[in-house]
Amino acid sequence: MLNNWLKIAFINYKKNWLSTLINLFGLTIGLTGFMLILMHWNDEESYEKWNPKKDQIYAFQSYFKPDNTYGNNISIPVVRRAKEVVPEVEDYVLFNGSGIGLKMTTKNKTVYQKEGMTATESFFNFFPFKLVAGSYKNALKGEGVIVLSTTAAKNLFGKTNVAGESVKFNNKNYVVTAVYELPNENSQIKPDFIINPVEQIKNDEKNWGNFNYGCFFMLKKGTDPIVIQQKLMKDIFEYRAKIDGKESGLNVQQYLDLYGPTDSLLTPLDKIKLHAKASWFGNGDFQTMMILFILSVLIVVLSAINFINLKTAQASQRAKEIGVRKAIGSTKFSLVLQFLLETFMICIASYLLSLALAELLLPSFNKFYDKEIKMNDWHIYFYSFAMVILVTLISGLIPALYLSNFKAIETLKGNFARSKHGVWLRNGILTLQLIISSFFIIGGLIVNSQVKYMMNKDLGYSGKQVMMILFNEETPKPWLKYERLKTEMKKIQGVADVSYGEAVPGSGRYSSSNMDYKDKSIQGQHGSMDYNYLQFMNVKLKQGRWLNPNLASDTINNALVNEAFVRKFGWKDNDAVGKKIRPGFDTKDYNIVGVIKDFNIWNPKSAVDPIIFFHYKETEWKRFNVYNIQVKIKPDDIEGTVKRIKNYWQTNVESGYPFDYYFIDQKFAKTFEKYQKQQILFTILNAMVLIVALLGLFALSSLMIEQKLRDVAIRKTLGASDKTLIFGLTKQFLWITLIAVLLSFPLSYYLMNEWLKDFAYRIDMPVWPYILSLFSLLFLTFAVVSIKAYQATKVNLIKYLKYE
């Protein structure tokens, strides 16, 4: 029996070779896309899975209800009180620096070691890296100790067994207490050296409002993190509000609304890469991942739709076969199994081809996403094979049931070809396919428009030819270094101007605090700067005046604010000038002397935050945070000027350190990369969908028109023109396309509007993508179907009329 089924299957594959190839092609493309996106998702979800304590470790995030925002920072008193009053909290680790670079000296050499991190002494209780030398006990306790990775140990000493050795940096000697080996598995936390910021913690340990640290909590096994979040709110944030609120005359709720946090969120360690609302180590993009996954599934669905359509369209060719088999005793169940086997054979062939194609495309996919994914995870094979079984059942079972329900007497008489049930099924499934195709066209055009809008939007500043040079971490009095360099670097040939600013577009640095005015408080960024910085960046003044170096008050307590700052307080621009605010970073009032137009620091997806700009000498501690010098280069010899600046820097400024610089406009342009990749992927998926849909339409129209060749021959004999015949054959498909596109409009509008909601700067929903989708699909449908319709008009009349 099985042998007989296989023979019948191969006969039908050969007879309908075009539809067989289209089914193979569509399913192969769909399954390949599904596999690649699944591998990408699986890779993103695999971060921190290596950690044996991952089920107990949670990343802390704060929530601020008035702004509906999340933060990834915490203060030391909050953490310590949590350990004291919440019994489910076993331990915590704090960190406030990652990606640090330091020039380190050993007995034999000096090395600039990158990728360092500061963390408190319980770090290795949370991240039990493989110990190579030394001991983790007290490894980070107190000052003067450092722990190295095997990579750093080899860099500094040429070997890994270096516990007890000495290394010098920041004019201090440090003892290596342990050497560890970093995990090969995916992890965001892979420091090459770790030191404990003991002195900084001492300075911050009594400051409730100094949210300078990231934190992981270790909870007791079986603890519900929701319960801990509630306890953090009640026993810590409300406790702080009672203490600080009394002094300012505010009740608990008023204090929390003004200064927050109003809630917290604990995210499991192995979920922070993709699911954390805010993360110290960078956020993933789960929404985009879901969109890509759904789109890849839709392509597989389209392929399955092609299969169903083509199988049902071939019904008339197999009607007599089914009638004969039923007449000789075949059951409905055996017929269903036979048709499922035929479908499975196509699906399994597509699966094998898709495995080969995915392996072939994987290097390019890895390069696109900067990953090192390998096809060695059984989950990929399991889920993709499960998709094959699902496609087999969906695309095989519907035609199988449909065909097995033929009545033997009617099929043997040859009357089945005119069954209305078959027509309605094919037309309904074709409509669904065209709805999906229309959505892809509309979505692709809107994504392209949004990305172009962001890239062409006026950002409110000009970073062209502005070179950002970072200071090393060891500079003891960085503001004095900046002031000396400012004078000297202006003399370098090709340098047009020099300045400093804390809030730099594309830098990723962020420092903020509360800004108070009477009974209202907002959260605002800090923008310490040199007097000329805003003019240096071509930012526009909207109201008031610039800071002036000739006015003593401008180095004491005068400041400028941006439009977002003014809006947040509900003022008008002219009302803001002259107002005195109390920023959380200082103990004195600041007088607003000017309002500048907003300029974008993060990326065009994000709204511009409120920012206060002031001279770096106005706040005593801010001068110690001067971390860069910015140089505007004349356009006539940029390459030569960069070489002269580099030579000067490495000879006279930071010998032995890497020359760490970038151009601001190029750095900011990198914030677009994620959206440009979305645009490219959507375009590729769009092309795949259209190809699969149009090939399916061509095959379906071919089969359906072939069934009407006798009608065409009769009408042509009666005098119908080729033009009339072509239009008559394509009219049905054009009506289906029109209905499908119109049905896709509300779905496309809703989904794309939801996508656009995530962008602070977004296009208005355009009409032209919907119109273009309608006309392009009508044109493509007509073009595809009319090819076969034109061939039908050249039918051999004698062949189809000789028995009439």
Automatic annotation (TrEMBL):
Q: Which Pfam families match?
A: FtsX (PF02687), MacB_PCD (PF12704)
Record carries keyword Membrane:
yes
Q: Which Gene Ontology terms of cellular component type are present? A: plasma membrane
Q: What is this protein called?
A: Antimicrobial peptide ABC transporter permease
Kindly state which keywords UniProt assigns to this record, in alphabetical order: Cell membrane, Membrane, Transmembrane, Transmembrane helix
Please tell me where this protein is predominantly located. Answer: membrane
Organism of provenance: Kaistella jeonii
Q: Which PANTHER family does the record cross-reference, listed alphabetically?
A: ABC-TYPE MACROLIDE FAMILY EXPORT SYSTEM PERMEASE COMPONENT 2 (PTHR30572:SF18), MEMBRANE COMPONENT OF TRANSPORTER-RELATED (PTHR30572)
Membrane topology per the entry is: Multi-pass membrane protein
Q: Does the keyword Cell membrane apply?
A: yes
Q: Which residues cross the membrane?
A: 21-41, 289-310, 335-358, 378-403, 424-447, 680-700, 733-752, 767-790
Q: Where is the ABC3 transporter permease C-terminal domain?
A: 294-405, 685-796
What region holds the MacB-like periplasmic core domain?
20-231, 434-647
Q: Which InterPro entries match?
A: ABC3_permease_C, MacB_PCD, Macrolide_Exporter_MacB
UniProt-annotated location(s) = Cell membrane
List, in alphabetical order, the Gene Ontology terms for molecular function in this entry: transmembrane transporter activity
